[in-house]
Write a structure and sequence with these properties.
single chain; alpha/beta; Rossmann fold; 8 helices; 46% helix; binds nicotinamide-adenine-dinucleotide
Length: 267
C-alpha cells in the first residue's frame, strides 16, 4: 500500500523513533509520499529493513539506525550520525513506546512499571533533548511527542502506561514554552482506539485476561466494548494517526505549540 501526497515536505527530513512499529511505519509512508527524507530509529532492525524496502517506491533518502531510546549516549550518537549524513533534520516524531503488562494496581510488577517509565518518559526526554539541541542550532523545526488517550483519562489495569503518557503531555507543555524562542514547536498526539495493529490486538487480549469489572473475558467482546466507548464507534486507522502527525508538523500548524491533539477519546 502506498500513501497519497497531501503536504509539502519535499526537501525536508523527518526522524521517527519506533520507526519499525505500526504507527512509525505508517508515518514514514505518509511523509515519504509528501517528499520528505526519512530516518528510522528502533530496536528492531529486521522490521526497519522491511520499512526501508517499502519506502523505495517513493525515491526519497532513507536511513535507519538501531537505537535504544532509553540510552542517552546512543540517542546522542544517532542524532550526530543522522545529521552528518542528512545535513539537517526538520521534524522529529518521538514515537517509540511500550504498553507494559496489564494488571490491577495492587498486582502491577515493579520492574515492568520501571520499564514503561524508562521507555515512554526517560526515552522520550532523551530524544526530545537531542532534537531540541539540533533544531536550536539549525534554526527551528517541529517535534511531535506520542502520548495516548491513556494520558488524558487513566484506563483500568494500565497504571504504568497511563502514568507515562500523562507525563508525555506535561513534558510537551514545558518543552513548548522552553523552545518557542528558538522557533521549535512541540506538540503531543493522543490516539485512543487505533487498529488493526499489534497494540490493539494485545490490549484487547490482555484486558480480557485480567478479568476486571470493566471488560469481558472474551477479547472479541472487549473489542466491541472499547469501540463502543469512543464517539466515532470505530477504530482509528494507522493512516489517520499519520495524517495527524503530518498536520502538526506542517506549516498549516505554524501557530500550534504545546497542544495535545486527541484522536477520538473514550471516557
Ligand atoms: N496503537 C495504538 O493503539 C496506540 C494508541 C495510543 C498511543 N500509541 C503510542 O504510539 C506509539 C507507537 O505505537 P505502535 O502502535 O506503533 O506500537 P508498536 O509496538 O508497533 O511500535 C512501537 C515501536 O517502538 C519500538 N521501541 C520500543 N522500545 C524502544 C526503545 N527502548 N528504543 C527504541 N525503540 C523502541 C519497538 O521496537 C516498536 O517497533 C507508542 O508510543 C504507543 O504508546 C499507540
Amino acid at each position: 500500500m502506498t500513501a497519497k501526497a497531501s503536504y509539502h515536505f519535499a526537501g525536508k527530513t523527518i526522524l521517527i523513533t519506533g520507526g519499525a512499529g505500526d504507527i512509525g511505519r505508517a508515518t514514514a509512508q505518509r511523509f515519504a509520499a509528501d517528499g520528505a527524507g526519512v530516518i528510522l530509529l528502533d530496536l528492531n532492525e529486521a522490521k526497519m529493513a522491511e520499512v526501508t524496502h517499502e519506502l523505495e517506491v517513493y525515491k526519497i533518502p532513507v536511513l535507519s539506525f538501531r537505537c535504544n531510546v532509553t540510552a542517552s549516549d546512543e540517542v546522542a550518537q544517532t542524532f550526530s550520525a543522522a545529521v552528518e549524513q542528512f545535513g539537517r533534520i526538520d521534524y522529529i516524531f518521538n514515537n517509540a513506546g511500550y504498553q507494559g503488562v496489564f494488571a490491577k494496581t495492587d498486582e502491577y510488577p515493579e520492574e515492568d512499571f520501571q520499564k514503561v517509565i524508562d521507555t515512554n518518559v526517560v526515552g522520550v526526554f532523551h530524544v526530545l533533548k537531542a532534537a531540541a539541541q539540533h533544531l536550536r542550532k539549525s534554526g527551528g523545526g517541529a517535534i511531535v511527542n506520542m502520548a495516548s488517550y491513556a494520558g488524558v483519562v487513566g484506563p483500568p489495569n494500565m497504571i504504568a502506561y497511563s502514568a507515562s503518557k500523562f507525563a508525555v503531555i506535561g513534558i510537551t507543555q514545558t518543552a513548548a514554552k522552553d523552545l518557542a524562542p528558538y522557533h521549535i514547536r512541540v506538540n503531543a498526539l493522543s490516539p485512543a482506539m487505533i487498529g488493526p495493529g499489534m497494540m490493539w490486538t494485545r490490549q484487547t487480549q490482555l484486558q480480557a485476561g485480567v478479568g476486571s469489572q470493566y471488560f469481558d473475558t472474551d477479547p472479541k467482546v472487549v473489542e466491541q466494548q472499547m469501540i463502543n466507548s469512543v464517539p466515532m464507534r470505530r477504530l482509528g486507522s494507522l493512516e489517520e494517526v499519520a495524517n495527524s502527525v503530518a498536520f502538526l508538523m506542517s506549516d498549516e500548524a505554524s501557530y500550534i505549540t504545546g497542544f495535545n491533539l486527541e484522536l477520538t477519546g473514550g471516557q
